[in-house]
Amino acid sequence: MKKGILTFSPQVLRILALVVVTALIVLFFASQIENYLNGRLFNRISSSVAVMALIATGQTLIILTRNIDLSVGSIVGFTAFATGSVIANNPDLSPVLLVGYAAILGGTFGVVNGLLVAYARIPSIIVTLATMALFRSALVEYSNAKSVTSQNLPAWLVDFPNQVVFSLGEFQFRAGFMAAILVVLTAHIALTRLRPARQFYAVGSNPEAATMAGIDSRRVILIAFILSGVMAGLAGFMFVARFGNITVVAGLGFELKSIAAAVVGGVSINGGSGTVIGALLGTVLVDLIDNSLVRWPVVSEFWREAVLGAMILIAVAADTIFIRRLAKMRAARAHEAAIAAEGAKT
């Protein structure tokens, strides 16, 4: 049995474990909440995942390089408000241009973070903690105490997230969710197939070795922050499309959820290990628990953030124990193979 387990990579084992945990949580809440398993649950979670999966993907790229981005919620809020304001004042603007505007705006915030972390050598947690407040303050100043309302937005934008691409019974696969899945799959293919994208893993696994191999670690970290900003910008576009009414608190708390989704999804907080597919499944699990706790009267809504924090702690601890035990099992197997090979020679 152990030998069978060892044939799988740590990333695959993490994903399989996550699928099992998600199934168990669904079964638990199904036993606690009346009429829990239905199409509405899937539709609610998929709509939420359409926004958070993009942020978690960007957060994954950051964590892979041994950094963290606490400013993503503020970037989402600013881009959501700015995107909503632009399209409200220019209703004939092309959708492609609007998406591009959101991505470029988010990427610009990412450049600020990346330059400070990669080239000024300031720890990412300090930089993004500061820019989280700065970007939010910039939003307050930019909004001038006004809000974006759905009445001022064109119909195509408001209708986009809920447009049904196809259905399987009560389960509706909507445009917003499918667009997010497409972005995640694109990022996954790039990280697994393209050599430049593999540099995120190299820098996070061993920065010194990556430098000796000719990889510009500072450039890789800068690109990671830019891409995280772009993802947050796209999430801002999805946010305004989904909710319509945008205030200065838009995106508040998204940094915690994105970190929880990535870490619970098996992305190592120590860098160099994890997948965006795992982060996507982590997003589903976090949103599943979040939505379920709202309907479960046993737990007060004030404990929902505490549950997310507990999930991060448990995930990090479980991942550390899992990696250590897997390393010991593989070392023991290699030792046994070496002894067998030596015996065969004699």
Strand fraction:
under 5%
Order of helices and strands: HHHHHHHEEHHHHHHH
Give the overall shape: globular
Number of helices: 14
Major pleated sheet: 2 strands, antiparallel
- CATH architecture descriptor: Orthogonal Bundle
| Average of pLDDT | 87
Provide the helix percentage. Answer: over 70%
What is the CATH class? Mainly Alpha
In terms of quaternary structure, what is this? single chain
Into how many domains do the coordinates divide? 1
In CATH, the topology is named: ABC transporter involved in vitamin B12 uptake, BtuC
Overall number of strands:
2
Specify the structural class.
Answer: mainly alpha
- Over the alpha carbons, how many angstroms does the gyration radius reach? 22 Å
C-alpha termini separation: 29 Å
Low-confidence stretches: none
User: Spatial order of the strands in the main sheet?
Assistant: 1-2
